[in-house]
């Protein structure tokens, strides 16, 4: 068997605080602190605790060339443990799962720190809404009480600020004023298929295809994209769109068409939406959810191991979400965006591998309900008329 180190791994010394039992037996309450090393790999979902010997061993094995297992320096028990954990990669069939995931990272041309940030920030089974409520961190006043005052809302530089002219509002300004994140969707009202089509057409549809070579095309869209690469796919969870069966879809930005995707589980769509949105029930009634999923290799094809590639990807998703807000607001619909999503659960729903593509945010659209049961940020009373 031949071995090599996985493509991207970094080590973190973590402090663990525990109760000192010896002190406790002597009638004292003391906390003892220990430092443990963890390996964070880009193809593994969880940090792996490692001993000092395993850490050194891993650092002595190359990640590009294969080494015979017999030539590995260190105790066999150590390299075997690293192999089973996926930190060492083997060329045999038994360890193919870790090898394939690692090859996905290798071929993905990731900048190592970005790969680690993406991998280890993903959630599975988190209920952020329950956490917020349990810790009484729901309203702005709750936050102030528990966290103290935030940094000021406005930064003041020394000097004299020159006033700018107030420009007369146009229809565009009035539309902008109506853009407010919706947390009160009408759970009974469907949107028209034409409304969803128009929204997709305005935001993620390709307005032109520039064919550079037979196998190389660039898309022009109404949103900007780092490197003009438009790596972000749109997957949909449709709950109430007239003429579209409720279910999961993928959008083709050139054909302007949807394909139905197989359901990976028999759970009701509303439950799937709730899990995806980490329990944020105030968003789950949107008529359609758009899951924004970059294909990392498309961006990293140009920006190989590039320190800014992941940042550009995140900004791309932000542009799409703002465009969705605008397109929805213009036709009287409401919208939201959230990054507080369970990426791992969402990947399972849409059969995404989480290595070559993985969701960054979910946006939703639908009709606003009649009552503001959950607070929205509408201080000027534009959306919810002042009573
Ligand atoms: C990147 C991003 C992530 C967000 N995530 C959440 C979220 O998880 N839950 C939520 O209720 N609102 C979320 N929002 C909406 C913001 O809370 C909202 O934009 C903010 O309160 C200002 O309100 P407005 O959009 O109505 O102006 C998010 C907004 C952005 C841009």
Your description of this structure?
About 30% of the residues lie in helices and about 20% in strands. The chain has about 375 residues and is α+β, with helices and mostly antiparallel strands. It folds into 2 domains: about 110 residues, no CATH class; about 200 residues, NADH Oxidase (3-Layer(aba) Sandwich), CATH 3.40.109.10. The protein has a 6-stranded antiparallel sheet, covered by helices on one side. The mean pLDDT is about 95. The structure holds flavin mononucleotide (FMN). Flavin mononucleotide binds next to strand 13.
Helix-strand blueprint:
Elements: E1 2-5, E2 9-19, H1 21-25, E3 31-41, E4 48-50, H2 52-59, E5 67-68, H3 76-85, E6 88-90, H4 96-107, H5 112-120, H6 128-134, H7 140-147, H8 171-178, H9 193-203, E7 206-213, E8 216-221, E9 232-238, E10 247-252, E11 257-261, H10 269-276, E12 288-294, H11 296-302, H12 309-330, E13 334-338, H13 343-350, E14 361-366
Antiparallel strand pairs: 1-5, 1-6, 2-3, 3-4, 7-8, 9-10, 9-12, 10-11, 12-14, 13-14
Helix pairs in contact: 9-12
The appropriate CATH architecture of the largest domain is 3-Layer(aba) Sandwich
Proportion in helices: 25-40%
**Strand count, sense and closure of the main sheet?**
6 strands, antiparallel
Strand order of the largest sheet: 11-10-9-12-14-13
What tags apply to this protein structure?
14 strands, binds flavin mononucleotide, 2 domains, globular, three-stranded antiparallel beta sheet, NADH Oxidase, six-stranded antiparallel beta sheet, alpha+beta, 387 residues, 13 helices, 32% helix
